[in-house]
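Fill in residues.
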């Protein structure tokens, strides 16, 4: 049974489970296959990295308190975070990787870092 490269259509020679004639064809095929997801994922990851960088800059000592306007002025986008943590008192920390913020009263936020990650 003849087999052909999934990307360029060249006849394949060699192993029976071979799908591509070269690494370039394999990469091109997979990049094209994942293109729609990749653009969205790139934007989300870029925003998460930016949020993390902002939290890190505003929290050099491991604990800090900032107001919402300070975060917004630097371009922080609150709807993007990696995970949440709810402590025993029911307070919810929003994490961007190892950096987190906790909403406080009067549009202030406590910034912390989880050094155990």
């Amino acid at each position: 049974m003849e087999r052909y490269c999934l990307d360029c259509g060249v006849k394949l020679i060699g192993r029976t489970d071979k799908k591509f004639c070269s690494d370039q064809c394999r990469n091109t095929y997979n990049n094209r296959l994942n293109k729609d997801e990749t653009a969205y994922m790139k934007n989300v990851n870029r925003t998460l990295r930016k949020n993390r960088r902002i939290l890190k800059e505003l929290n050099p000592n491991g604990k800090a308190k900032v107001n919402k306007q300070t975060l917004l002025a630097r371009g922080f986008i609150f709807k993007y975070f990696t995970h949440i943590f709810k402590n025993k008192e029911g307070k919810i920390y929003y994490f961007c990787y190892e950096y987190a913020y906790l909403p406080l009263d009067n549009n202030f936020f406590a910034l912390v870092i989880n050094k155990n990650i």
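The mean pLDDT is 95.
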